[in-house]
Amino acid sequence: MGNQNYSFSIKQIVKVDWPNALFFSCVSFLVGICIFTFLDWGGLRNIFIGIFFFIAITCFLFFKNKSLILLFFVILSFSIGVWVIEIEKNKLEEATDSKWTSGSFLITELPERKNDYQKIVGCFQEENESLQTFECHKKTLIFGASSDVFEFGDVLRVKCQMTSPENKYPKFNYVRYLAKDDIYQICSRPSFFEKSSVFSDLENIELKLKRIDLYKLKVFGFIYNVREKLEQQIKKNFREPGAAYLAGLLLGGEDRLPEDVSEDFRRTGTTHTVAVSGYNITIIAAFLMWLGIMIGFWRQKAFWLATIGIIFFIFMIGAPSSAVRAAVMGILILWAVKNGKLANSWRAIVFAAFLMVIFSPFILVYDAGFQLSFLATLSLVFLYTPLANKFGITNDFLEIKSILLMTIVAQLGVLGLIIYTFESVSLLSLLANLIILPLIPVIMLGGFLVIALSFFVPFLAGFLAMPVQMLLDLEIWAVSVLAQFRWASVEFSNLSIWWLVGYYIFFIGLILKYRKQ
Q: The whole model's pTM is what?
């Protein structure tokens, strides 16, 4: 009799609606992280442990009830989310004592250059530590002068004041913003004494690094070397600021643009075009799929070719978190469009968010880029198809009407968060995007061909670069003209959190209305 009950119980597990169980578990995990980012687990620990064991015992006693089984997984996922975020919060309690120190600093990410400074992230080892303790699981941030030349893989001898990050603005938790990237200390007021490269001193660095960290350095070093050669060809064939704009489109990052040009893009709401966004990723993926089909691949194989190409591209630009998010969301959107499942891919989007959050829990609350990418993608998934049907936009992907609708839909998803977080919004964003987005695929394709030809047929590359340069200048000119209007950007101040809540209640109502239709 006992064996029969056990067999029946296993059947009940198999009959559980696993797609729903996975979806609700992912949502529960995210909710647990979101809530206990702000709450203290210690005071509620006993209550949640009691609830968890009560649900577990109930499920054991009434195993035939699939709803209870689902509830068990939901509670378990919520508890795991609480446990994960508490681990991250405990890491922050190990504050770094403010002290002057000296040691070696290994640059493990591409330096991010701004107009008057640059951010350098890497691993720090004090002089008095053993050579075996060069650990990279906790990173250090250095702010260097913009005129200094630092590269990935450089080993710096540095003296600085080591401190913990501090929060200076009420609406921005700088400490947890850095912690999402495993940065827990800042090397302030640095003095650099000497510089070498990990790639020219491997015997010494092998004593200080784990083998996996060393392999990662070698792989990324090769990829970044390819990136540097591509950027050199861009500078060789195009004049500024068009060269900086093209490098942003193809290699990611708006930090190359002059300050005034960068401000024009910000005021017109088009900065996303020079960062790696889902739109750029979609263009690259579409081109790679077309290339795969042209050389004889089936569509399914071409899709995987595009996916592999995007992964290589993301690593080439340094795999910043924003680019990784854009790649994940962009590939999902491309897959959904390819299979005609755009309106039904929201579960996959939530699962992708779960995977990103489990590796970096603080991004859920403290990374505006993640939030904007997630909201824009969900908005496209829920609203684009019903609105495209309503306005008769079909088979128009990447064309004028489709671009306009996609821009409007994405803006609806992120507008509330943009206004609350950045306290400003561009009134010309729709017009500016409508003007410049249709030309971006042409510019990216032309720029890529120029770079490829410059290695083999420099004369032909220079000839092709002329029309591409004209398009780059036209885009930058159009953005600068639109940015001159005083009402191009509207500023807000002292917005309550209830503004954010109210906007997204309206947004959810809009989704329910059009999804029902």
A: 0.75
